[in-house]
Write a structure and sequence with these properties.
5-stranded mixed beta sheet, about 1000 residues, Plug_dom_sf, transport, about 10% helix, mainly beta, tonb box, about 45% strand
Length: about 1000
């Protein structure tokens, strides 16, 4: 009988065998018919195969651009609004050609290739967004330049904004028509003067092929070496001209599917690599507080069928407290004894229940395996564009796209701790026996609830984008002016749903089981097991739907009880973006050094959000014991509230390029922006280039950039709580008020937020020596300093900052006169985001490429890219928070390795292209403020803890890509391709944490994976 594993291996072998056979069978035909064909031009890419441009506008213009040639048409470079032939902006620009995308992309999603660029390596992808349970970001691909956060990277499509797929405005790369992307331009520097808000870290512009001709079919299939992670996609692209070439129409439809991997069945996840505190450590110890070098460490605070973490003895019974601690329940409710290992934290015999153990029963808690490794993803999209030249110089166009995506992900078990069971609970009595419970009044239980289905993230998104516009040229006073004008509407409909979520009240009711007494208020049969609320003396709290739930064991829960206690909370959100803009470009006059180019334009934009949450999934307004308003959460997670709001912005800009002679060129821009929420702000850019000789060009740019608050930060729906805060101004005589204040807090957005402001510098050089034809290199130092950063504060933080005289924090505090008494004011505190943070990040980018002809039809291309981070210092503005340089910290998901790098070697044969890729990050630290020591350790504190080992290893992965061209017949051409990622099956970067202990931002989480496919095109 063939097992599932055998079937998976067989399916993988068949897939790989078919792909290899297809390439092998195609070889003779290639040799006869396409000996002189390069790989990339076969399918219409104008780039030379394997070309690797560095800071270039067009791949084929690399050398001429480096030498300052002025020939060729005017082009608009991403990062600038000026159209000018031969112009190279001072802001660094990297172009990823269609050839590179097709030949080197590790998956059927273009984002997975773009994310490999060192400056973008920290981007959000399904592997590291999967556990964003209540944010709606699970499963998206969002770009993150410089690790400054996705909200500080502006994503454009053909130079225009696109509607976001989340409430924070993140553009999901999945919504861009993959098959029509001609190139991707990455600007690694501030560009707010050119494009407005969000371009603090830079811009990523996806350039579409607007004149595609012919018909192209693309299909691919992939799987991991473990037989899971199966994925496939298909896309059909068609384009044609009409009316003697004056009109053009093109459409694309695509579908992609990815099987989810719902359990982490990988050897690296079964080593028990977890940080543990030394239970013998005290504040006076000279040994490290934390141990990170041990293995076989697991959770000791819960088990799949329930673990007793404490027991309460009846007073005077003579039974010791916690005598039942360590009893856990296995299959069918069978009680067993948890074996605590040689090293536990805290001590197994102490007053607190152990949370971790080394050895012993460390593998009983299996929650680190029963969680998703990769989400299931289904997405499809359609795109269409039509254009018509109404005159020889003016074009009208309209385009539209519609995308739908469905994400499912296993978010792990329904962990619940602190469950109190009465010693009379009939399931407990049945499991342990009455004699063992003698002298016990109650037990405390913790469980990962294996009988309950795992929590599931279920996100559905529909994203639409429509645009009409015109572009062309006209003459004014003998000068040619180019223009474009457009209007755009975008809409994203999102349902963020969590399935199999515990209803807090219902699971408490179902867990509290009791034996029905005769004459009970619910009328149940005497001696039957029922929910205690239905058989007690109080008839008003009955719930006829309640079914008792057995929490003690594996395979013991009743399906009706499971259905009663679980639900699927959701919220619906619709974001809309309306945009209109106009741009003009001209060279109105000349100086002694050449034409002065000018661009001028303006844009209007409106962003809005509407939210809906069914009442049953919202927190319940109530009052606390003191009669003060608060809320009670209904669900263990996913207590949603609807968000509503909108803002608009009006912008105008001016940019110029002025040649100064002797190889000098000045580029400057200024933009005025007026937000309906925060008023006006000015951004600008001053830069220049100098090419003293054709072989080298120096560049420098200084800019002021902004990021405006997004819809979530402005209008986040509130949730409330009641608590107390310490009075930082308290004195013993009571002159400054009481020692503490009671308050009601509400967490909301802040409509008074102002844009973040960044000061950016870039200084660099580009080298293209004539004596080494085909070689290009660039090096750029960059520095970004963000002020007025948007951050959130606790109620105590707000009170502390108000006491220091900061009025904006005092404005978040009001006194509730109705609930205040003399000498004891009652406060209302809005815990909302403020402009209070600052962040400094700086580093150096390196980019080199070399291409040479080995023979008439054979070429070799080498490409190397790296980013060296120097500083990443975040000051949240929270009083007393530690400010540290986090460069080199590799432990968490939002980390900044010292080095990110990627290199490739491409060998182009007459009809075959082979590319090997190496990529990774450097070794680093576990904690930015951690102190590594083994003996004579300093005092270990919360801010500066001590570790026996504070080192974390780096990563290196190798990929292999092979592309084979085939001319089928006439104008029909085909291309087969095979990709192998993580060629040597290197494991992820492991970090000593509980749960899925790997850095999923930079790691390959799946292991060696194979993808093969075909592209067929006819013109």
């Amino acid at each position: 009988m063939m097992t599932n594993s055998d079937q998976a291996r067989r399916r993988m072998a068949m897939m790989l065998g078919c792909s290899v056979a297809a390439i092998a069978l195609a070889t003779p035909a290639v040799a006869q018919t396409v000996r002189s064909q390069a790989v990339a031009p076969l399918l219409g890419d104008t780039a030379a195969p394997g070309a690797a441009p560095t800071d270039r506008v067009d791949v084929q213009q690399t050398e001429s651009a480096a030498r300052g040639d002025e020939d060729g048409p005017d082009v608009v470079v991403t990062g600038s609004r000026v159209a000018r032939s031969g112009f190279l902006a001072p802001t660094p620009l990297t172009v990823l050609s269609q050839t590179e995308i097709q030949n080197q992309s590790p998956s059927n999603n273009i984002a997975d290739f773009v994310n490999q660029q060192p400056a973008l390596a920290g981007s959000t992808k399904p592997a590291n967004s999967r556990l964003n349970l209540s944010s709606g970001q699970a499963g998206i691909n969002a770009l993150n330049l410089r690790n400054l956060g996705e909200v500080r990277t502006l994503v454009l499509v053909d130079g225009h904004r696109s509607v976001g797929s989340t409430i924070t405005g993140l553009v999901d790369i999945n919504t861009i028509p993959q098959g029509l992307v001609k190139s991707v331009e990455v600007v690694t520097g501030g560009a707010s003067a050119a494009y407005g808000s969000d371009a603090v870290a830079g811009v990523v512009n996806f350039i579409l092929d607007k004149k595609f001709q012919g018909l192209r079919l693309t299909a691919d299939n992939g799987i991991t070496q473990y037989g899971d992670g199966h994925n496939y996609s298909a896309a059909l692209t068609a384009g044609t001209s009409f009316a003697d070439g004056r009109g053009h129409i093109e459409v694309e439809g695509e579908y992609a599917h990815r099987d989810g991997i719902f359990q982490v069945d990988r050897a690296w996840n079964a080593t028990g690599y977890v940080r543990i505190q030394d239970p013998n450590w005290t504040a006076n110890s000279t040994t490290p507080q934390f141990i990170t070098t041990k293995r076989q460490i697991g959770a000791a605070n819960s088990t799949p069928g329930g673990l007793i973490t404490g027991s309460t003895a009846v007073a005077g019974s003579g039974v010791a407290a916690n005598s039942l601690r360590g009893v856990y329940f296995g299959s069918g409710g069978q009680p067993q004894q948890f074996q605590y290992g040689a090293l536990t934290f805290p001590s197994a015999t102490g007053s607190a229940a152990p949370t971790l153990t080394q050895g012993g029963s460390w593998q009983v808690n299996d929650s680190g395996r029963n969680i998703g490794l990769d989400p299931q993803d289904d997405r499809y999209g359609v795109f269409g564009r039509a254009s018509f030249d109404v005159t020889d110089r003016i074009e009208l166009y309209a385009e539209g796209s519609f995308n739908r995506q469905h994400i499912l992900f296993n978010a792990g078990p329904n962990l619940q701790t602190g469950i109190t069971l009465s010693a009379t609970n009939p399931y407990l009595v049945a499991a342990l026996g009455a004699s063992r419970l003698a002298g016990i009044s109650s037990v405390t239980l913790a469980t990962t609830s294996v009988d309950l289905p795992s929590r599931v993230v279920d996100n559905r998104r529909k994203v639409q984008r429509y645009q009409i516009g015109s572009d062309g040229k006209f003459d004014v006073f003998g000068k040619t002016v180019s223009f474009d004008v457009y209007g755009q509407y975008g809409r994203a409909d999102m349902r963020e749903q969590l399935r199999n979520i515990q209803n807090i009240t219902k699971i408490a009711n179902a867990t509290n089981a009791a034996v029905a007494p005769a004459g009970n208020s619910g009328g149940y049969a005497a001696g039957s097991i029922q929910c205690a609320i239905n058989v007690d003396a109080i008839a008003t709290n009955n719930d006829a739907a309640c079914v008792p739930l057995n929490r003690l064991g594996v395979g013991v829960a009743n399906s009706a009880a499971i259905a009663y206690v679980l639900g699927s909370p959701y919220r619906d959100e619709t974001t809309e973006q309306k945009t209109a803009g106009v741009n003009f470009r001209a060279s109105p006059f000349r100086t002694w050094a050449g034409d002065v180019s000018v661009a001028i334009g303006g844009e209007w934009r409106e962003e809005s959000i509407r939210g809906y949450v069914p009442q049953e999934f919202q927190p319940i307004p109530t009052v606390n014991a003191q009669g003060r308003p608060t809320v009670t959460n209904t669900w263990s997670v996913g207590n949603y509230l609807p968000t509503n709001g909108s803002y608009n912005v009006k912008e105008a800009y001016l940019e110029t390029v002025v040649p100064l002679g002797l190889g000098l060129e000045f580029n400057g821009a200024v933009r005025g922006t007026d937000y309906s929420t925060s008023g006006g702000v000015v951004t600008w850019k001053l830069g220049g280039t100098w090419a003293p000789i054709p072989d080298i060009r120096f560049r420098v740019v200084r800019s002021r950039d902004i990021r405006a608050p997004n819809l979530n930060e402005l209008y986040q729906a509130g949730s409330a709580n009641s608590d107390s805060v310490r009075n930082p101004s308290f004195t013993a005589d009571g002159a400054n008020g009481p020692a503490t204040y009671s308050y009601s807090g509400i967490a909301t957005g802040n409509p008074n937020l102002r844009p973040e402001v960044a000061a950016s510098w870039t200084i660099g050089a580009v080298l293209a020596p004539r004596f080494l034809k085909g070689f290009n290199a660039s090096i750029d130092y960059w520095r970004i300093n963000i002020k007025q950063g948007i951050t959130s504060f606790s109620a105590q933080d707000i009170v502390n900052l108000c006491s220091q005289g900061q009025q904006r924090f005092c404005d978040a505090i009001t006194q509730d006169a109705a609930r205040s008494v003399p000498g004891q004011p009652y406060l209302l505190i809005r815990t909302q985001p403020f402009n209070a943070a600052s962040q400094l990040t700086r580093g150096i980018d390196f980019d080199t490429s070399y291409r040479t002809q080995l023979s008439g039809e054979t070429a070799l291309t080498l490409r190397g890219q790296a980013t060296r981070y120097i500083d990443n210092i975040l000051d949240t503005g929270v009083p007393g928070a530690v400010i540290a340089n986090t460069v080199g910290v590799n432990s968490g998901q939002a980390t900044t390795p010292t080095w990110n790098f990627r290199g490739s070697v491409t060998l182009d044969l007459p009809s075959t292209s082979i590319t090997a890729v190496g990529r990774g990050i450097s070794a680093g630290r576990y904690s930015a403020t951690g102190i590594e020591c083994q003996t004579n350790c300093p005092l270990s504190t919360t801010n500066y803890p001590t570790y026996d080992n504070n080192q974390v290893s780096g990563l290196f992965y190798a990929d292999l890509n092979v592309t084979q061209n085939v001319r089928v017949a006439g104008k029909v051409k085909a291309q087969f391709f095979v990709n192998v990622t993580n060629l040597f099956n290197r494991e992820p970067l492991l970090v000593p944490e509980t749960g899925l202990a790997a850095n999923s931002t930079y790691s390959d989480m799946l292991g060696r994976a194979f993808r093969f496919g075909i592209r067929v095109q006819t013109r």
